[in-house]
Write a structure and sequence with these properties.
The structure is a single chain. This protein has 9 helices and 16 strands. The strands form 6 sheets. The chain has a 5-stranded mixed sheet, with helices on both faces. Strands 10-11-12 form a 3-stranded antiparallel sheet. The protein has a two-stranded antiparallel sheet with strand order 6-9. Helix 2 crosses helix 4. The mean pLDDT is 89.
Length: 378
């Protein structure tokens, strides 16, 4: 780091590294600049204009997420002018679609009443599915943005739900581009991009096809990146459940050996959504389709919870003791009659490394065979 490279932010001299933006320097030094379209790890788009700051000598406010820090730059991150600009931009975004989280026409004094009422579900029927976890709503509250006088823009695009995983509600999309960045730069699937112009602008999959007919692999990175209620897991759409009601449980994805870190959103004893943990590896928030959406087996009525023993041509439920006794006896009989290599052991990619280690140890040391393999589908 070159000690001579510094900027002055809110009166403090701060060293910066080449390539860092004003926002990077601010975040590294614990200075809060609000963002909406900025997505960590992707190139900035400067689309939302919420991260505006003042730079001495510049006529206009600049987007801190897209402006490189330069030597001796003097930056202010809060001022009445900045707050007013952020508020106006938020009001334009609120007016740009169907953001019916009731921030629209409220008296400033009744924010708390409104929040409590909505949280109790009294106005929950049509409520945005992102209510309480919507970045736009959070900022609207913070900056007291109310699009009074600005007519809401009608969208001509219907809700798209013709796939098993993701609902796209274009009326709530603010065209921040985070989903496009997440798809193209984080996951590098290149399945979606901006389409059309002006008021018709829309995020499109190839040829403006539904996601199910596109190159989308349904990793759900776009859903996690969406700061509003435009992209929602299908299992969690239209349930009237507020995201903030769910208990979040951190755990490890059960599907493969990578060990992705996930958060289970649990409501009423059921997993209602899965998100990747952003802060830690190995996945830093990203997940595959199985890790993000393949959790319905947990509460599925067909899930096997007890061992089954084949009796004639039917299976009957058994206790674990009975099942283990039977397996031990039959393994011993086969080994005695046909030798250990008549036996083989299949383990699973869905159990832990430690369990797989124990399984091969059991095969080699107890059964006496090296016939060990795994099946990813077990
Ligand atoms: Fe910088 Fe949107 S966060 S322009």
């Amino acid at each position: 780091m070159d000690a001579n490279q510094f900027i002055v932010m809110n009166g403090k001299e701060l060293v910066f590294e080449p390539g860092e933006t004003i926002l990077d320097v601010a975040r590294r030094n614990g200075i809060d600049i609000p963002t909406l379209c900025y997505l960590k790890g992707a190139s900035p788009t400067g689309a939302c204009r919420i991260c505006l700051v003042e730079v001495e000598g510049a006529r206009n406010l600049v987007a801190s997420c897209a402006t490189p820090a330069a030597a001796n730059m003097v930056v202010r991150t809060e001022s009445p002018r900045i707050r007013e600009a952020r508020r106006l931009n938020l009001e334009l975004l609120l007016a740009s679609g169907r953001h019916n989280c009731l921030v629209q026409e409220m008296d400033l004094e009744s924010w708390a009443d409104f929040q409590l009422k909505a949280m109790k579900g009294q106005d929950g029927g049509e409520l945005c599915p992102a209510y309480g976890e919507c970045r736009l709503q959070e900022l609207a509250v913070k900056y007291q943005a109310r699009p009074k006088g600005l007519p809401p823009t009608d969208t001509v695009y219907p809700v798209e739900d013709v796939n098993p995983f993701i609902v796209r509600d274009f009326s709530r999309c603010i065209l921040c581009g985070r989903c496009v960045q997440a798809c193209n730069e984080i996951q590098v699937n290149n399945a979606i991009s901006y389409g059309y112009r002006g008021a018709q602008s829309k995020i499109v999959a190839k040829g403006d096809l539904p996601l199910v007919n596109s190159d989308c692999v349904f990793c759900g990175e776009c859903v996690q990146a969406c700061p509003v209620g435009a992209l929602v897991p299908k299992a969690d759409y239209g349930t009237g459940r507020l995201p903030l009601e769910a208990r979040k449980v951190r755990t490890t994805c059960p599907y493969c050996g990578v060990g992705c870190q996930i958060r289970l959103h649990v409501d009423d004893g059921k997993i209602v959504r899965v998100t990747g943990v952003q802060e830690v590896g190995p996945n830093y928030g990203s997940l595959c389709v199985k890790g993000r959406f393949g959790h319905d087996f947990v509460n599925h009525p067909d899930r096997l919870k007890k061992p089954l023993i084949k009796d004639g041509d039917r299976f009957r439920e058994a206790t674990w003791d009975e099942a283990l006794d039977l397996v031990a006896r039959r393994l011993g009989e086969i080994k005695e009659q046909a030798g250990p290599d008549a036996l083989g052991l299949f383990t699973s990619a869905r159990i832990t490394n430690e369990e797989n280690y124990l399984a091969q140890k059991f095969a080699r040391a107890v059964l006496g065979t090296n016939n060990v393999d795994h099946c990813a589908r077990l």
